[in-house]
Amino acid sequence: MSSTTSFLCARSSRTL
């Protein structure tokens, strides 16, 4: 689960 959250956080960070 943490892996998915980390992936989403990284993606959002790159998008912003």
Structural features, described:
The protein has 16 residues and is an all-alpha fold. It contains one helix and no strands. The chain has one helix spanning 2-15.
How would you concisely characterize the structure shown here?
This protein has 16 residues and is mostly helical. It contains one helix and no strands. The protein has one helix at residues 2-15.
What is the secondary structure topology, with strand pairs?
Blueprint: H1 2-15
Features of this protein?
single chain; 16 residues; mainly alpha; 1 helix; 88% helix; rod-shaped
Order of helices and strands: H
Shape: rod-shaped
Rounded mean pLDDT score = 86
Low-confidence spans: none
Largest sheet: none
Report the strand count: 0
Structural category? mainly alpha
Number of helices: 1
Radius of gyration: 7 Å
Give the termini distance in whole angstroms: 23 Å
Helical content (DSSP H or I, runs of 4+): over 70%
How much of the sequence is in beta strands? Answer: under 5%
